[in-house]
From TrEMBL, chain A:
Mode of membrane association: Multi-pass membrane protein
Name the UniProt record assigns to this protein: Carbohydrate ABC transporter permease
Domain ABC transmembrane type-1: 111-301
Residues annotated as transmembrane: 21-40, 115-136, 148-170, 182-202, 223-248, 280-301
Family (UniProt): Belongs to the binding-protein-dependent transport system permease family.
UniProt keyword annotations, A-Z: Cell membrane, Membrane, Transmembrane, Transmembrane helix, Transport
GO biological process: transmembrane transport
Cellular localization per UniProt: Cell membrane
GO cellular component, one term: plasma membrane
SUPFAM superfamilies: MetI-like
InterPro entries: BP-dep_ABC_trans_perm, MetI-like, MetI-like_sf
Automatic annotation (TrEMBL), chain B:
Transmembrane spans: 36-64, 103-122, 134-154, 186-210, 231-253, 293-313
Places the protein is found: Cell membrane
Record-level GO BP terms: transmembrane transport
GO cellular component labels: plasma membrane
Predominant localisation class: membrane
InterPro entries: MalF_N (IPR035277), MetI-like (IPR000515), MetI-like_sf (IPR035906), Sugar_ABC_transporter (IPR052730)
Keyword Thylakoid: no
Alphabetical keyword list: Membrane, Transmembrane, Transmembrane helix, Transport
Source organism of the structure: Pelagibius litoralis
Lipid bilayer topology: Multi-pass membrane protein
Family: Belongs to the binding-protein-dependent transport system permease family.
Keyword Magnesium: no
Pfam families registered for this protein in UniProt: BPD_transp_1
Protein name: Sugar ABC transporter permease
TrEMBL record, chain C:
Chief localization: periplasm
Annotated signal peptide: 1-19
Protein name: Extracellular solute-binding protein
Family indicated by similarity: Belongs to the bacterial solute-binding protein 1 family.
Keyword Transport found: yes
Keyword set, alphabetical order: Signal, Transport
Gene3D superfamilies per the UniProt record, alphabetical: Periplasmic binding protein-like II (3.40.190.10)
Species in which this protein is naturally found: Pelagibius litoralis
Localization per Swiss-Prot or TrEMBL: Periplasm
Organism lineage: Bacteria, Pseudomonadati, Pseudomonadota, Alphaproteobacteria, Rhodospirillales
Record-linked Pfam families: SBP_bac_8
Domain of life: Bacteria
GO cellular component: periplasmic space
InterPro entries: Bact_solute-bd_prot1, SBP
């Protein structure tokens, strides 16, 4: 699909163009609405968030974010009266609700877990994937096509199906609920994507550069490091972001194989509750913080998106 | 096409490898190309063997036993094909497969129609289409669990945005219906969210297909005085079809495994109305802890996806050849 | 590129370093992790435990999981041999499995050594929270928190003269907290859809949750009042005619009737939190919930104080309540069992138990419940004792999860999803349970 990037039909008429633009914009607005709503709910007070009819205009509040990062306990007014004045705005906000901040919540830890496991597994899958992709791209390997297909087919298993034996395996070697266990697992899942994408990128690097380097007396390894890697940098970066997004969003394995120490944010965010009810602003605040990096990456990745989501099968 | 390019490159690579004096390579690193190749591919294969293939074999093994992972003290015994027999004769399992089929058919239908239409409209190249395309793409990149969880809020009777919007345009009471709680509505509630999330996927791939059609084909059709309608059916659609089929393949595989989004939305309820195969599998494996039984179910699911995917790929190749 | 690679290596090395030795560092400092559900009493326990830290120098960390995920997460943790929790306040139904598979440390020796006597605790709680096999003197937990299912109602609404008059005209009796399920339904119907202070309100918030144990806990509250029995009292695991008895079918039908007539809209998947939401926002006249929440509700600025009243689970054919509550156990995989036992020893002290009750935890130590002032110490204290004298619990078998999930499915299918009849639901449930016990080799 490489060659033709030719644009469009033979000149669309202006009115069809206007009509299509109107329809697409309408769809885009509808599609973005739930995301805007998440963002807005994060800045509502709990009361505003469940008011009827739903509030579009409201006085913004940071209560959701305060609730997200703290645990609070309700106190009697008599007790409240004995307290010294609040030493920061968050404490003051919480006191307005007859509560005091009891300590930090688990959100920070879970978010950090997501970062550690996300970056750890991304680094490992890109590292291994680059090596394997280079080998698949440049060397004669017996049963190459079968191996490549085998690597891809590991993606077809339902995660729950794999989780059963992995649960048993991790239990016996003590990897349950550890960062290392999750990093290895996410790497194993991501590596199929990494190999397939990177092979595509490396295939596109003309061989002449390496040949020249080899003739200049470089070894294979030197040629790989000094010639191929810099050329593949964009591809490697794009692949890394795709791997990161997967680990960042992954839910099933995290739900089944972690319980606290290594639990990531996705299984945690839905369980954020406030005192006596689901605290939607806090959930929305957590979701917002969690989704923003991905929104940024998506915009950054626009050009490579197609390739990433099809395992390199469609390259444009 | 990608494949032929790859092949071409491979040949060059082989030639290059042969052209390199072996001694030269060895002098600097002590490694032959072959050694480098295996050194590079090895770790990946080892990792996949350890964390994918070994577990798969273990699952097969477990599927012939009555092992329960929460009852290690109890021991277990081989019971042959009994688990498979039980899975296949269990009416609850067949119900979850029906639910999965309903979900697959409707999400695919809606997403193909919407996705293709959107791609077709965007391909008109109106002003600012890049920006709006990016906006439309956002949902599919986000965490299904987190987003699915938030949709339960949007679906709340009365206070939920979804109910409010429907009530506003439909003139009904927003507390009169519950998308996630009603037996008749819940299967559609999950279809709606999945469609919201994944239509952009089909759209993006279709767009690539549309852009791969060179203008001169249409120009030739114009010369032949073919109507726009005819151009669409005999040029646009057939040329986009391989792309569309590929997109559908990926989506079918993913939605067959669907877990996170629907678990957070309904966790299978009300009753078992939205209990997809994966949700049932999770219940059997990690709540009831019937490890042997659920392993058999897992194998059956895997073989089904694998089989369907293979048949589909053959069909896809036929379409490509045409 | 080299720089990028070096940076990436450093980052990932740091990540690994963080993942590995962090665990070791934790083991060295004296710090216990206690796992429980995330709810009001847990906050009280945090407060209470500060005394323990002050006394022993052992720090306390807490891992509280919301109820809908609690069983799932914690059983998963135990089954994977995890070291997250040193102490676990686990649900009563887990005792069988946890004892059989060695997840919990057996406490008999420790109790003997420290002179902690189980006679000092309410007998129903010792039986339910501590023993396995049931009723034998083998203890796997110390009763930590007594609990049963009870009801709250809007006292302020019930006492309005115009509503009183209206209700009397309709039903010929006073509008008062119901004593039978039939009365409860009448009262619910009376309130359903009524406007109070310009707001439409609904009859009752009851449990209908699908995912964990919600609808089972709610529906069995009705079933027990109809005299439901799990098995033939003379022949264990003989369930035909018991599980699917005419009374059981009638009770389930009744529960569905209550759900259909008198719950707030969209109340299809609701457990404790949803019930609290509905009650605290003034949507419902009555709510079924655990006693554990009653201290918090009584303190609530909007619906608490004079506006709230409490009553025990109504009878119908017999008086009975669904049992809640938990015992505290030492996890067998913990590296800090010594310190964990030290905590239990401290917790079992009479003074600590008294403070526990005053903070909002349901202590079941005799020093608390047999205190002459106990019944007057809170508006729900007397009801609590009454409920605890007639509690019934779900199966506590090692196969409890399978039994529970079967009931969840059958009940939700029938009550909420409108599939089949009550008779079919109970028949199918019996078949499911027979299958489980056959697999267990008990049938």
């Amino acid at each position: 699909m490489s060659a033709s990037t030719a644009h469009s039909v033979v000149d669309a008429k202006p009115w069809t163009r206007h009509l299509s633009s109107a329809l697409v914009i309408l769809y885009a607005l509808i599609t973005i609405l739930p995301l805007v709503w998440i963002f807005m709910t994060g800045f509502k007070t709990p009361q505003d968030s469940i008011s009827y009819p739903p509030k579009v205009v409201f006085e913004p509040s940071l209560e959701g974010y305060v609730n997200l990062f703290t645990t609070r306990s309700r106190q009697t007014p008599e007790y409240m009266a004995t307290l010294p004045p609040p030493d920061n705005w968050a404490e003051a906000l919480v006191r307005d609700r007859n509560m005091v901040i009891a300590g930090p919540s688990k959100f920070g830890e879970r978010f950090l877990n997501s970062v550690i496991i996300g970056f750890g597994s991304t680094f490992l899958s890109v590292f291994l994937g680059t090596l394997a992709a280079y080998a698949f791209s440049r060397f004669k390997i017996p049963l190459k096509d079968d191996l490549m297909f085998f690597i891809l087919s590991t993606r077809m298993m339902p995660p729950i199906a794999v989780a059963i034996p992995i649960f048993l395996m991790y239990r016996s070697v003590g990897l349950s609920d550890t960062h290392l266990g999750m990093i290895l697992l996410y790497t194993a899942v991501n590596i199929s994507l990494a190999v397939w994408l990177l092979k595509g990128f490396i295939d596109e690097i003309p061989l002449e550069y390496e040949e020249a380097a080899l003739i200049d007396g470089y070894s294979r390894l030197q040629a790989f490091i000094k010639v191929v890697l810099p050329q593949a940098a964009t591809g490697i970066a794009a692949t890394a972001i795709f791997c990161l997004i997967f680990s960042w969003n992954e839910y099933a394995f995290a739900l089944l194989l972690t319980s606290g120490t290594a639990q990531t944010a996705p299984p945690f965010i839905p369980t954020i509750i406030g005192e006596g009810g689901l605290d939607w602003p806090a959930v929305a605040a957590g979701a917002t913080l969690f989704l923003i990096p991905i929104v940024a990456f998506t915009i950054l990745l626009r050009k490579h998106l197609l390739r990433g989501i099809t395992f390199g099968a469609v390259r444009k | 096409m990608a494949e032929s390019t790859t092949r071409g490159l491979e040949k060059v690579a082989e030639r290059a490898a042969r052209a390199t004096p072996p001694g030269l390579a060895r002098r600097f690193s002590g490694l032959s190309d072959k050694a480098v190749a295996w050194l590079f591919v090895g770790p990946t294969l080892v990792l996949l063997l350890a964390i994918n293939i070994f577990p798969l074999i273990w699952t097969v093994y477990l599927s012939f036993t009555n092992y329960k992972a929460n009852r290690s003290a109890r021991g277990y015994e081989f019971i042959g094909l009994r688990n498979y027999e039980r899975v296949l004769t269990d009416s609850d399992i067949w119900q979850t497969l029906q639910v999965t089929a309903h979900f697959l058919i409707w999400t695919m239908t809606l997403q193909v129609i919407l996705g293709f239409t959107l791609a077709w409209l965007i391909n008109k190249q109106f002003k600012g289409h890049g920006f709006w395309t990016t906006i439309i793409l956002l949902p599919m990149m986000l965490s299904p669990a987190v987003v699915g969880n938030f949709w339960t809020f949007l679906y709340q009777p009365q206070i939920g945005l979804f109910n409010y919007v429907i009530a506003f345009f439909g003139g009904i009471d927003p507390s009169s219906f519950s998308m996630l709680g009603d037996v008749n509505l819940a299967p559609w509630a999950i279809v709606i969210v999945d469609t919201w999330m994944w239509t952009p996927y089909i759209m993006l791939i279709c767009l690539a297909g549309l852009r791969s059609i060179p203008d001169y084909i249409y120009e030739a059709a114009e010369v032949d005085r073919a109507s726009k309608w005819r151009q669409f059916w005999s040029i646009t659609l057939p040329m986009v079809l391989p792309f569309l089929m590929l997109a559908v393949l990926f989506r079918v595989i993913e939605n067959f495994k669907m877990f996170d989004l629907v678990v957070e939305l309904t966790s299978g309820g009300p009753g078992s109305i939205t209990e997809l195969a994966s949700i049932n599998l999770k219940r059997e494996a990690f709540e009831k802890w019937r490890t042997g039984y659920s392993s058999a179910f897992a194998i059956i699911l895997f073989v089904t996806v694998f089989g369907v995917a293979n048949i589909y790929v053959k069909a896809l190749n036929k379409v490509k050849q045409r | 590129m080299k720089k990028v690679l070096a940076l990436a290596t450093a980052v990932s090395a740091a990540a690994f370093a963080f993942a590995g030795p962090a665990d070791e560092a934790q083991a060295q400092s004296k710090e216990l992790t206690l796992c429980w559900a995330a709810w009001d009493p847990a906050n009280a326990l945090v407060e209470l435990s500060k005394d323990f830290t002050a006394q022993s120098g052992i720090g306390m960390k807490f891992e509280f999981v919301p109820w809908p995920n609690f069983a799932d997460r914690m059983l998963n943790e135990l089954n994977s041999g995890g070291k997250l929790c040193d102490l676990l306040i686990g649900d009563s139904q887990w005792i069988g499995g946890s004892a059989e598979n060695g997840h919990y440390v057996k406490l008999n020796e420790f109790f003997d050594k420290e002179a902690i006597s189980m006679d000092n605790f309410l007998p129903a709680t010792v039986y339910a929270y501590s023993t396995w096999p049931k009723g034998s003197p083998n203890y796997w937990a110390l009763p930590a928190m007594g609990d049963a299912l009870g009801w709250v109602y809007r006292k302020d609404w019930f006492s309005r003269p115009e509503l009183q008059a209206d209700f009397k005209a309709k039903h010929g009796r006073d509008l008062a907290p119901p004593t039978t399920w039939s009365e409860l339904k009448e009262v619910s119907e009376f309130f359903q859809g009524r406007e109070i202070d310009g707001k439409k309100i609904y009859g009752a918030a009851i449990f209908t949750e699908r995912g964990s144990e919600g609808i089972t806990m709610g529906a069995t509250a009705a079933l027990y009042s109809w005299g439901f029995e799990y098995q033939n009292p003379d022949k264990p695991y003989d369930m035909e005619g018991f599980v699917n008895s005419a009374a059981a079918v009638e009770a389930l039908d009744f529960y569905k009737g209550l759900y259909k007539c008198c719950t707030p809209p969209g109340y299809t998947d609701s457990y404790m939190q949803e019930g609290l939401d509905a009650f605290k926002s003034g949507q419902v006249a009555m709510m079924m919930n655990w006693f554990a929440f009653f201290p918090g509700l009584h303190k609530d600025p909007v619906v608490g104080g004079d506006r709230i009243g409490f009553f025990v689970n109504p009878g119908q054919k017999v008086e009975a309540s669904t049992l809640g509550g938990q015992g505290i156990s030492v996890v067998a995989y913990s590296d800090k069992q010594e310190e964990a036992l030290q905590y239990i020893k401290w917790f079992a002290g009479a003074d600590v138990q008294k403070k526990w009750w005053s903070l909002g935890g349901y202590a079941v130590h005799n020093a608390v419940v047999q205190d002459p002032g106990f019944e007057a110490s809170a508006p729900f204290a007397a009801d609590f004792l009454k409920a605890m004298s007639g509690v019934q619990d779900f199966w506590q078998e090692p196969a409890y999860a399978e039994l529970m999930l079967a009931m969840q499915k059958r009940f939700h299918d029938f009550v909420v999803a409108d599939q089949g009849t009550a008779q079919e639901a109970m028949d199918k449930l019996k078949e499911d349970w027979v299958e489980v016990f056959e697999d267990e080799g008990k049938l």
